[in-house]
Amino acid sequence: MTAAVTAPIAYSALGQRAQPPTIARLMALMLENPKLLSIAAGFTDTRSLPESAVQAAAAALAARPSEPDHLQYGTNQGRPKLRALLADRLLALESVDASAYAAPIRANFFITNGSQQALYLAMQVLCDPGDIVLVDRPSYFVYLEMLVGLGVQARSLPVDAAGRIDGPALRGLLGDLRDRGELARLKAVYFVSYFSNPSARSFDEAEKIVIAEALTGAGAIVPVVEDAAYRELYYTTPHAARSVLSLPAWAAFPKLYLSTLTKPFATGLKVGYGTCSDAGLVAKMLHVKGHHDFGTANYNQALLEEVIAHGGLDAQLAVVRPVYFSKMRALHDALIAAGLPALGWRWAVPGGGLYLWLEAPVALDTGLDSAFCRACVEAGVLYVPGELCFGDDAPKNFVRLSFGVLGEVDLAEAGRRFASVAKRFA
Ligand SMILES: Cc1ncc(COP(=O)(O)O)c(C=O)c1O
Q1: Is residue 273 lining ligand 1, measured as CB closer than 6 Å?
Q2: Residue of 252, 233, 249, 277 whose CA lies nearest to 93
Q3: What three-state secondary structure class fits 412?
Q4: Ligand 1 centre and the CA of 28: distance in Å?
Q5: Residue 404 Cβ < 6 Å to ligand 1
Q6: Coil, strand or helix: which one is 355?
Q7: What are the extents of the domains in the chain?
Q8: N or C: which terminus of the chain has fewer CB atoms within 10 Å of its end residue's CB?
Q9: Rounded distance between C-alpha atoms, residue 338 and residue 334, angstroms
C-alpha cells in the first residue's frame, strides 16, 4: 500500500481498532521466503478439490431450459432448495428424533458468504464494544481477532488439564462476573465443538451440558454460537455428540448453529450456512447481511444445490477424508520420527479436521515474535503460534500445525524442519 498524501483521515472507532489480520502477516512472511513450507494457514487440499463435480454442476445449470435465474441476484436468506438440502443433512446428523425441533431449524436456515460472515453478523447484532463473550480454550483465532476488532472482550471457558470444560471453575468465573457487576455485559458463548480449529478436540455432550447448566445456574441465558465447521470432516468415525440444537440442557437458550461448505467441499466457493432456534436473532442477522451484501453469490449456491442434490458432497467427503487422514499421519509420523516427544512436546492424534495442536515444554516461547518462530522461518517452515488462539491469559508454549494444503512429502519435510529447530531450543 502507498503512503497517504492527503490529509489524515478521522477513522471511526471500528476503523481505529482494525489491525492487519495475523493471517496476512503470516502470508507476507510466506511471500518473502519462497522456500518456506507453510503449515500455518488452514487451506484445504488443492489437488482433491472437486473440479469435475463443479464442472458437471455448471453444465447442468447451463443446460436448464428456463431462464438462467442462477445468474441473477438471489435472496438475502439464500436459495430455498439449498437451505432445505442442508437442513435435511443437519437433521440427519443430530441422530435423535428430530420432530420436536425440526421446524425452526428449517424455517430459520440461512446461507452466508462463508461461515466467517455469519460469525461477524452474529457478533455485530449481539455485542457492543466492552461486552463479553465466553469462548472455548483454545479457540479459532480469526474469530478472536474479530472480537478485538469489534471491541468485544473474550473470556475463556475454563478447562482442566485434559482440555475438558471445568464445571466448577466455570461456575466460579460466572460468580466473579456477577460479583463485579459484569454479568449483564456477557452477551454470548462461542465454541468450535467438532475436530476444532486449533485443537482438533471435540466436545462431548457432557461438556456442552456442563456449560448450559453453569450458565443456567448463573441466570445468564445468553445466545450460544456453536461453530461446527469441521463436523463432517472426520477421518473414519463421526463425532457422535449432538449439537446444542437438540440437547435438552440448552432448550431455554437462543441457539445459533453455524457450519460451512468451504472445508468439506470447495473453499473457493466460500459458501457457509447456519440455523437458529430464534427467529428474531436470525432476522436481525439477515437485516445486517442485507446491509453487507443482500445475498450470498447466487451462482455458487446454485452449483452447490446441484452438487448436493446429486450426491456430490458425500462423494467429495469420501475422497477427502482419507486424504486428510494420510496427511495428518505424514506430519505426525515425521514429528515422532524426528524425536519431538523425547524433547517434551505433546499432542493428541486427531480423529478429524486439519490441525495438529502441539504443546511445547512450558518454558519455550513459540510466539509470533519469539526466537523460536524466527528460527523456524529461517529453517523454512511456518506455523501458527498458539498464543493467538486464546481469548485471554495466553500461554506461549503452543503451536498449531495445519496439514491441509501441502503434499505428504512436503509435510514430512516441514515436520523434520520444525523438529530440528525444536532440538536446537531443547
Ligand atoms: C472454526 C472455523 N470457523 C469458521 C471458519 C470460516 O470458514 P469459512 O468462512 O470459509 O466458511 C473457519 C475457517 O478456517 C474455521 O476454522
Answers
A1: no
A2: 233
A3: helix
A4: 21
A5: no
A6: strand
A7: 14-43+315-424, 54-310
A8: N
A9: 6
Structure confidence at residue 35 (pLDDT) = 87
Fold: same for 14-43+315-424 and 54-310: no
Helix-, strand-, coil-residue percentages of the chain, each rounded to 5: 45, 15, 40
CATH number of the 54-310 domain: 3.40.640.10
Cα 166 to Cα 170, 210, 246, 383: the distances in Å are 6, 8, 22, 29
For residue 190, report the distance from its CA to the centre of ligand 1, in Å.
Answer: 13
pTM for the predicted model, two decimal places: 0.96
The closest of 237, 256, 320, 314 to 115, measured between CA atoms, is 256
Burial of 59 (0-12, 13-18, 19+ CB in 10 A): exposed
Give the model's pLDDT for residue 186. Answer: 98
- Per-residue pLDDT reduced to its tens digit, 197-247: 999 999 999 999 999 999 999 999 999 999 999 999 999 999 999 999 999
pLDDT at residue number 47:
95
Residues of the chain with pLDDT under 70: 1-4, 95-99
For every residue of 322-342, DSSP letters joined together read HHHHHHHHHHHHHHHHTTTGG
- The CATH T-level fold of domain 14-43+315-424 is Aspartate Aminotransferase, domain 1 (3.90.1150)
Ligand 1 geometric centre to CA of 229 (Å): 6
Mutate to test the pocket of ligand 1, among 120, 121, 135, 140 (most ligand atoms within 8 A of CB): 140
Return the SS3 of 162: coil
Atom of ligand 1 nearest to the CA of 270: 10
SS3 116: helix
Task: Give strand ranges (E) for 19-170.
Answer: 37-38, 110-112, 132-135, 153-156
